[in-house]
């Protein structure tokens, strides 16, 4: 899900997670989550933030979101498998925030204090606690600079039941 945000400094920030195509040999050696088989074999390669200071004429090399505890790349040549969800948000203090969906159904927060040049792991926003399937978190900045976060939850026992109830959960957090 590619997303585009313009910071107050005017920088365009493009965030997207990637799937890297891999050989059948690499795919067969993984046998773990984050592996895609159709239409081509691929591994979750992580989330990159690209910056443009000239309205999109040129773009920086990717800055990868990393530092998530207990998360390891699915292959030596790839980055931590976290998937960005939604646009980068900017707080009243000009801090940039990106939120992701990582392993074990945990939504995490990453932040940048230098207009997106470097990112660091801040902590979890929502955690699964081994009883639910947490998905597609989305956050927006409110006019008073608080952040509204919403996601869905399924009970794990209902994951294969397409008729099972899906719960929507939301919260408002301070900057």
Q: Describe it for me?
A:
The strands form 3 sheets. Strands 1, 2, 3, 4 and 5 form a 5-stranded antiparallel sheet that branches. Strands 6, 7, 8, 9 and 10 form a 5-stranded antiparallel sheet that branches. Strands 11-12-13 form a 3-stranded antiparallel sheet, with no helix packed on it. The mean pLDDT is 75. Helix content is 4%, strand content 45%. It is mostly beta strands and 175 residues long. The two termini are 25 Å apart.
Question: What's the topology here?
Answer:
Elements: E1 3-6, E2 12-21, H1 24-30, E3 35-36, E4 42-52, E5 63-64, E6 83-84, E7 89-90, E8 96-101, E9 107-112, E10 120-126, E11 132-141, E12 147-155, E13 167-173
Antiparallel strand pairs: 1-2, 2-4, 3-4, 4-5, 6-8, 7-8, 8-9, 9-10, 11-12, 12-13
Approximately what portion of the residues adopt beta-strand conformation?
Answer: 35-45%
Order of helices and strands: EEHEEEEEEEEEEE
How many helical elements?
1
Helix content: under 10%
The first-level CATH class is given as Mainly Beta
The CA-CA distance between the termini, in Å, is 25 Å
CATH architecture label name: 6 Propeller
- What structural category do the secondary elements indicate? mainly beta
How much is the average pLDDT?
75
Biggest beta sheet attributes: 5 strands, antiparallel
Shape: globular
- Total domain units: 1
Q: How large is the radius of gyration?
A: 17 Å
List the keywords.
five-stranded antiparallel sheet, 175 residues, 1 helix, 13 strands, mainly beta, Neuraminidase
Question: Could you write a compact summary of the structure shown?
Answer:
The protein has one helix and 13 strands. The chain has one helix at residues 24-30, and strands at residues 3-6, 12-21, 35-36, 42-52, 63-64, 83-84, 89-90, 96-101, 107-112, 120-126, 132-141, 147-155, 167-173. Strand 9 (107-112) and strand 10 form a beta hairpin.
